[in-house]
């Protein structure tokens, strides 16, 4: 995905045309602080990663962005989240479903349990909206193709592998036609092959879809996002591009600096890294930069 430039920290926190706005959000579970004065926005079509260690608040922030919070007694002590200027409470079920969809880190827990085939699982949410049958079929067909599930359409969802179930969860979410897809550690329990298969599918999702990828590791997020938010103890420590993230002092402390990024940073320090080329922790992107450099070496 292409590189997005940012002009200032204020610009990075507030997109000029926002789909989702988080305004000075503070939140606690049973008096335990989780989010502390968080402000950011997500623009239509933006590819954003929210990264942080365990306990950083990223899952809670993801749930606020996707409209899973507030609920019941779980309310913000300060601030708000709005969708094009409206709070989640103002939206009916169909409008909420079309605004954002949330996909968690355990695929099996996201299955409805009411569908006997992959095809029916993808149709389940759209069917609950009371849409006309032809539209449901069209949405299922589109989402099935988008997530490469056609060959599995007649399978029992619980018979699929973890990676296939995660693609199914995304397909079911996409059948709701959301403008934002929020994913919480979507490859956390995957082997490398399953992770790469999911990342390949992510690249095929519509460009106009905003993606919010939340993770405790850097590698997969680097392959998806163009903008990176580092969440540290419930506060935003950084908001910007990959180069700034990888050179931020808290990044190495929280994640450990990936070997590929470390190599790229060493090359940059020696003025061997191409000027203006973003540093990435994605091995494929680093290899693309290194390959011509090595070919030109004596």
UniProtKB/TrEMBL annotation:
Protein name: Cobalt ABC transporter ATP-binding protein
Pfam families listed in its UniProt record: ABC_tran
Alphabetized CDD domains for the sequence: ABC_cobalt_CbiO_domain1
Family assignment from sequence similarity: Belongs to the ABC transporter superfamily.
Keywords: ATP-binding, Nucleotide-binding, Transport
PROSITE patterns the record matches: ABC_TRANSPORTER_1, ABC_TRANSPORTER_2
PANTHER family assigned to the protein according to its UniProt record, in alphabetical order: ENERGY-COUPLING FACTOR TRANSPORTER ATP-BINDING PROTEIN ECFA1 (PTHR43553:SF24), HEAVY METAL TRANSPORTER (PTHR43553)
Residue stretches making up the ABC transporter domain: 20-258
GO molecular function: ATP binding; ATP hydrolysis activity; ATPase-coupled transmembrane transporter activity
SMART domains, alphabetized: AAA
Cellular component terms per the entry's GO annotation: ATP-binding cassette (ABC) transporter complex
